[in-house]
Amino acid sequence: MLLVLCGSVVATGLISRGSLGTASALLLAFLVLAGMNSPVILPRSIGAQEAQRRSAIDGRPVVFWRPGCRHCIRLRIRVGRNARQLHWVNIWRDPAGAAAVRAANDGNETVPTIVVTGRPHTNPDPEWVRAQLPATA
User: Fold this and answer.
1) How far apart are CA 45 and CA 39, in angstroms?
2) Is the N end or the C end of the chain the one with fewer CB atoms within 10 Å?
3) SS3 content of the chain, % helix, strand, coil (to 5)
4) What's the predicted TM-score (pTM) here?
5) Phi and psi for 107 in degrees, rounded to 5?
6) HSE (CB half, 13 Å, CA atoms) of 117?
């Protein structure tokens, strides 16, 4: 919401100076940034320990992601409605999640990293991720 508000203020100032094209481009850029960081695009995150506990119970994959990651957004969009069946962990909000991703990726925080039955997979194909969901999900 803050990005949309800031973009609107900047665009309004530019429009008042007669720069309609620049104002439109900047407002669009702010809207894209807001969308990339929106909880509407990516489901609500939980902590890594909670996600791993739930995954052990229901067998659903755990997705480690971070805001602004275009690969994470691509995964979310391509998985579609099934994305809410995954357990999402924002590594920028959860130090344990960030540590799990570094452990799986030679010290790098490469996302999305998907953990299925205890095995990490870095930036897998969204179709593969969808196939990992339990049939009853």
Assistant:
1) 9
2) N
3) 55, 10, 35
4) 0.71
5) 90, -5
6) 4
